[in-house]
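Hey, I was hoping to borrow your eyes for a little while. I've been staring at a protein lately and its backbone has me curious. You're getting the sequence in one-letter code plus the fold written as tokens. Would you mind checking whether the tokens look sensible for this chain? Here's the protein in full, and shout if anything looks odd to you:
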Amino acid sequence: MRRTTIAVTAVSALLSLSLVGCAKDPSEAQPGGGGESATQQQDAALHDKLPDKIKQAGKLVSVNSGSFPPYEIVGSNRDLSGAAADLSDALGQVLGVKVEHVTVEGLSGVLTGIKAGRYDFALGPIGDFPERETDNDFVDWVQEFVVFAVPKGNPKQIKDLDSACGLRVAVMAAGSAEKVIKNQAQKCTAEGKPAIEVQSYKDQPSSILSVKSGRADAFFSSQAPLTYFVDQSKGELELAAVGQKNGFDDLFQGAVVPKDSALRDVLLAGLQELFDNGTYAKIMAKWGLDGNKLDKPGVNLAGSKG
């Protein structure tokens, strides 16, 4: 029978010293990283379409669940860097408002906070799945793949999802990868294979630390952040099961807003401007995310593809 372990706060505190802190300089964290994106011209028409509450406040409140490199890197003083931070700066300039970032614990805290109206949106990127579109709208701006991060040499010889039977696998709590690995755990036992020990952590850095410390055999998550962590590990880690479906169909990720919010179409149009003027491509290249680019942003792409 599988076990689910929730990471303690101390793990994240330790990780903030060992991993997150190393990425304060974007050009140092990503080879070839450039400077800040060019200043954007405000689109007065889009600004006028913002909900009155946002125009009056002069800001959009974007919520995140902690470090999700290279998209979101939360520093020790709670400042945010990464591709999403750069994109939010540019987007705020286009819309004529400041984007304020708030960090909460766990993806569930992000989604419930948006639904309750405590936050305007999450730039993310957060996984867009048809079941999530019931209560939320997604403005998708990246595509993603799900793989494993493992110790160098892949000692457990993970080749695909079926290879995880009998292993200790870390995942991010409440994320789509957790659901897939738990389904795989049931499949393993149903087929008479050794069970998977599922370890659920509240954020990406805590999960990757579990592999580096030997508490987990692998971390199952999005390829973009795992590539970042592998690069930062200085040879301790590598990716496994790359190029496999690993329990997923086409994956889209993006910003989240309340269902049928007026903000949805404003964000879509604002992002489209950043796609059209080349800012989006420059930001994605700066953070090593060329393989995750979309040709254009879209609304609820998971549902439309389903």
User: Anything to note?
Assistant: Residues 176-190 form the longest helix (15 residues).
